[in-house]
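User: Show me sequence and structure for the first protein, then do the same for the second.

Assistant: Starting with the first protein.
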Amino acid sequence: MKLNLYNIALTGLLITGIFNQVAIADEGAKLFKACEACHSIGAGRRIGPDLKGITKRRTNDWLVRFIQSPAAVLKSGDADAKAIFKEFNNVPMPDNALTTDQVNLILAHIDGGKGGAAEVDPKLALMQHRIDSLIATNSQQDILAGYDLFTGKRRLENGGAACIACHNATYNNISKGGNLAKDLTKAYSLLGGFTGIKGLIGSPPFPSMAQTYKNKPVTDEENAYLQLFLKSTDAQNPATPIIAKAWLVYPAFLLSLFIAFVIAAIWFKRKRLSVNHDIITRQMRYSK
């Protein structure tokens, strides 16, 4: 009887342990979703490194500190952080408001993770085939479709903001984009090609961008058009361009010249005539 009770208790503990492991794995997988834009687990480099085996290459303490605040670790002069930053085109990893426990859940997921990509829903297979075809064909028409989406000439299907509101991308020597966020002219090279751009647009890792598109995501087809457009801007500009915002600079320069001229004219008049000149002239006129 005692042996049966012992077996029952042991079985219960094992089942509880299994359920706990499944719950931990599920929680880690959910948290890792925010990382997928830049990282895979065994599926190769993206914007950042492939994380397969990372827990064997770095200590837990270092990983927790770096995942929570890569900027702080980099600023401290850490050699590994500086090497990673340089290897991945000096693209900064944003800080993450994660607790130590949450980071460890992500690390546990990475240890047991399979690849970096989710299984393709059969219902989406046809769309995926179309997107693959768009990328492979790389036609001028599709590049222009990406240009129209980037500049807002064509509205995004779900009503999200056009990229040009915050970003510039120099195309055909024209730079009329926003400067609130990073210039994307060389994004194709900096982010590691199509995969990096796709991940950045599909799962934005930056808080402001994530909030902007939270309920208005860019569709996969629109994502593909934008990828093609940014590849084209990259090819057109072998070196990182100096944004020539003549449309803003020239009027500002002319306005500055005008203001300087007005100030100089006023100052010259005041310097040429005495302070009391008007008073004396008026008195002489009335005294006649």
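Switching to the second protein now.
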Amino acid sequence: MRPLRKSLRRSILALTVIAGFLLTSFFTVKGATKIRSKSVELTASAVTLEVGNIAALSAVMKPVNSTDKLTWSSSDENVASVNKYGTVTAAAPGEATITVTTSSRKTASCTVTVKKELTAQEVAALINGDFLTEDDVKRLISENTLSEEEIKALLGETGEWTGSKEVPVISGQSFPILVSDPDGTGIIGNITGLTVRKTHATTSFVHDNRSSFLPYRYDIVLTGEVLSIKEEQKGKYVSDITLGSPDKSANIAGHCEITSCAISGTGLTEIITIYSAYDIDEYFIESVVWKQK
């Protein structure tokens, strides 16, 4: 009888241990501690894709054993979409921001730029009958998969490109510069600032049905105040500026284009491009005249 009792006690003890283990395991799993993320990073902060291509983004949470879940989103799915695994698909030219968010609301983003590959024929159509500056060519190179050599071949261009630099105003000339009313009755405003940036371009352009070789381009940003301008004059008047140089006796402009002229309240901002045969390292303002467009 005693051996039977001992065996029964051992069996009950074993069952108790097993049951305790199972219960402990069950409640440990059900009540597992959640480890929140403190930060999240993406493997890339910026990606450039052609239309139709894909890129795989990976997110790394810290601590690495975080139990947070990840959610992916795109700021513009028409440009680039992303699935729940972080795979980005480029849909159309433009820019979109891909963001990953953890359950603890930690985020990281990647800027996706989508470009359309232009063929040599498409680029040739864009430049046919027009002129290109160095900046235009560099833009075409950056926006397309065509190389600099291919762009130059399309242009028939073999020259070297040079960088741009800001040209300082000659010492002694200061701002503001007063500007007379178009009808000469008084002061209409003043020029408060002028920034001139020179670029050396080796292309020619057609003007007045003749080819002109003006290898120096000066991009000008003019700011000023038009205190006496009438409301009906806004949008109809621009400032016509003449630049000179200490080592050049003539007006440096061979061709001048006013790209834009905006007046907000009494503030004026004007963007001007001058093409010139002269390479200058300093400039001064010979004259500024308000005139009708």
